[in-house]
Request: fold
Amino acid sequence: QSVLTQPPSASGTPGQGVTISCSGSSLNIGSNYVYWYQKVPGTAPKLLIYRSDQRPSGVPDRFSGSKSGTSASLAISGLRSEDEADYYCAVWDDSLSGAVFGGGTQLTVL
Amino acid sequence: QVRLVESGGGVVQPGRSLTLSCKVSGFTFDDYGVHWVRLAPGKGLEWVALISYDGTDKYYAGSVKGRFTVSRDRFGNTAYLQMNSLRPEDTALYYCAKGDGSGSGYGMDVWGQGTTVTVSS
Reply:
């Protein structure tokens, strides 16, 4: 059972938008930056969002991150077939003195 | 460009040791922490360890504390993960990743391609 809670699955049709949530506590999300990663089988994880709401260069602006209190969200607009992947949130946990990942959300583009 | 290349994976018997290397290039190694993260078959990403920019601070997941040790060589631009007393549940693809900052509180930004560790008799 992960310290961070993500829905195990999400889905949408091409062109639609989808939001993936990540729920934590005051000792992790509530006090530290949240990171979001895209993981496609056979490839290394790719950073989508850093420091809760910042997008690295090269990541489409269809991807956006937000944080409020002890929860964070990754929003994907204009879904494309290539967005089909696993998505993970990650954050530093002050009580564990270590980073933690959410359990991951498998996104299906129908 | 920023690049991290892991090596040292392989098949090892339970109870034995293995050391992974992470050779970096394209950024000032001395300014950033280095994380180790693993992906076990059928599981999600699991954070393993972090070494701070200057090597003075080291952090470990509870599942590996006391068995794994992180270190870094500033002259060789290389980070290491020494794994002792390996268990079958340590079987995974191990990634090293550049920290988004100098140490704790920051996540990973650029990742290597990973090296596979299989613990089996």
Q: What stands out?
A: Residues 30 and 70 of chain A are 5 Å apart (CA to CA). The first strand of chain A starts at residue 9 and ends at 12. Chain A touches chain B through 28 residues (CB under 8 Å). Chain A has a mean pLDDT of 97.
